[in-house]
Amino acid sequence: MYNDLTGKTVVITGGATGIGRAMALRFGQEKANVVINYFGGNQEVEALVSRIESYGGKAVGVYGDVSKEEDVKKIVTAAHEQFGSLDVMINNAGIENEIPSEKMTLENWKRVIDVNLTGAFLGCRDAIDYMLKYKIKGTVINISSVHEVIPWPHFLHYAASKGGIKMMTQTLALEFAPQGIRVNNIAPGAINTPINAAKFADPSLKAGVESLIPLGYIGKPEEIAAVAAWLASSESSYVTGITLFADGGMTKFPSFQGGKG
To answer: Which GO terms describe its molecular function (predicted)?
Structure first.
């Protein structure tokens, strides 16, 4: 646990499910103020807010589509109005779908790029603008993917969006380091989230994915949340502009494990 996160205000886009939910709970355990952006029903959010409050943190849910400029502004405004600050911005919202590249329509392409890349841009821009206005030496954390470096056929739009997040993170880190604003990126590997539940429920498909992971198991959302807490804390105060791969070694060419090749 990181004592310096107590009372800090953390915004998490896509915070109601999967990795976002695990991060919201972790920051609740850190006794932070958590702004949970969601896009869908609010029943899960209400239960999540109650659980965070039971840990001693504070929380509020804010509905919004991160691909829409006005919705992102609303999320940032909610952090200020509810808790009087914005110290940590986590751009986590993302979508994916499988489409052969030659069959991908412009609409298919734009929806994923709009949510994953444009949504992260809007979150970064508005959070940094707020931090500059109120002279907050805050932290921005983007959630990328191993597919910022691993090509992924049939997921061209997704891989392109994550590659863009990588360079956006590095550029913003360089630009705003003089103001004490740190910008970093987490690239999860295969994580057991609702979006992957059907695939991992099939033993053969699960085994196929595990064969790509040197540590040999599918990651848990809580393991990504732990990385986010560290990057948000003062324990990582000299870290900016990095992609931290939390992937069980997936990006380390596992086919060469054991001296093959």
So the answer is: glucose 1-dehydrogenase [NAD(P)+] activity
**Residue 183 to residue 169: CA distance in whole angstroms:** 6
State the chain's maximal CA–CA distance in angstroms: 57
Tens digits of residue pLDDT in 31-54: 999 999 999 877 789 999 999 999
Q: Residues 207-211: contacts with CB within 8 Å, 24+ apart?
A: 211/254
Indicate if 158 belongs to the active site.
yes
68, with CB counted inside 10 A (0-12, 13-18, 19+), is middle
Q: What is the pLDDT of residue 258?
A: 84
Q: Can you give the pTM of this predicted structure?
A: 0.97
**Active-site choice (2, 130, 158, 217):** 158
* Contact of 55 with 28, CB cutoff 8 Å: yes
